[in-house]
């Protein structure tokens, strides 16, 4: 299996989190440009956000398996340093690009543009993006995707959604993953669904298990795929 391409951010390519309005605005402008580029190319783009270990890569792998007959899929995986995720996804026979953000805790629109253009040249019509793992920084940095999905898992405990409500407000779809672990964890999945809806009454909530495959078709549907 060929090694996935790794794009490392130059210092001037990934924007500093602490930094100001101007950077956020510049990112938003580039995100709008990305959206126009995606639409013109007829490419649908979904941005998956969530903590490390919530199951983003596992869900993307499941979606790739279930949708690769229908779409020409490409994956962009964001991580601070490793290429583990792009490598996992590339085993499913779809092009995947790893972006290493160094010390930055989110992807941003300029670097995603670079990777997405490469995938578009390869002829993809669906791009699944895995954002850098955490529930804080990605919220403020739209990438130009058509939809944002936030993934939490029952193993993160019962307070995750309440504590990080902001990111649910920035997303259209909430995924509550690892349903198979709700028994051992003693977690009430219905209460997590309610927390997500309390944070954002318009959010579509899907309960999944990337381990068993439960809910993956519902998720594809919620994403309009
Ligand atoms: N039991 C269970 N384990 C899962 C599920 N989804 C992911 N995992 C496991 O959780 C760990 C982290 O998953 P990963 O997809 O790498 O999470 P990411 O960091 O958000 O990309 C891995 O060991 C997965 O096998 C699930 O639905 N149920
Ligand atoms: Mg991952």
TrEMBL record:
Stated name of the protein: [NiFe] hydrogenase nickel incorporation-associated protein HypB
One GO BP: protein maturation
Protein's UniProt keywords contain Transcription regulation: no
Protein's UniProt keywords contain Ubl conjugation: no
Domain CobW/HypB/UreG nucleotide-binding: 48-205
Source organism superkingdom: Archaea
Keywords: GTP-binding, Hydrolase, Metal-binding, Nickel, Nucleotide-binding, Zinc
């Amino acid at each position: 299996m060929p090694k996935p391409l790794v794009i490392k951010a130059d210092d001037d390519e990934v924007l500093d989190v602490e930094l100001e309005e101007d950077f956020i605005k510049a990112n938003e402008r580039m995100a709008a440009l990305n959206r126009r580029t995606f639409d013109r190319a007829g490419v649908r783009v979904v941005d998956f956000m969530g903590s490390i270990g919530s199951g983003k890569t596992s869900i993307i792998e499941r979606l790739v398996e279930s949708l690769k007959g229908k779409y020409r899929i490409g994956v962009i995986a964001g991580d601070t340093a490793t290429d583990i995720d792009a490598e996992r996804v590339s085993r499913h026979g779809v092009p995947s690009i790893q972006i290493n953000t160094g010390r930055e805790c989110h992807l941003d629109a300029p670097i995603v543009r670079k990777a997405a253009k490469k995938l578009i040249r390869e002829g993809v019509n669906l791009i699944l993006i895995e954002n850098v793992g955490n529930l804080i920084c990605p919220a403020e940095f739209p990438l130009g995707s058509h939809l944002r999905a936030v993934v939490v898992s029952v193993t993160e405990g019962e307070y995750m959604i309440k504590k990080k409500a902001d990111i649910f407000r920035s997303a259209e779809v909430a995924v509550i993953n690892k349903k198979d672990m709700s028994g051992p964890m003693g977690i009430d999945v219905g209460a997590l669904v309610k927390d997500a809806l309390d944070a954002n009454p318009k959010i579509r909530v899907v309960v999944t298990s990337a381990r068993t495959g439960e809910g993956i078709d519902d998720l594809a549907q919620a994403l309009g795929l």
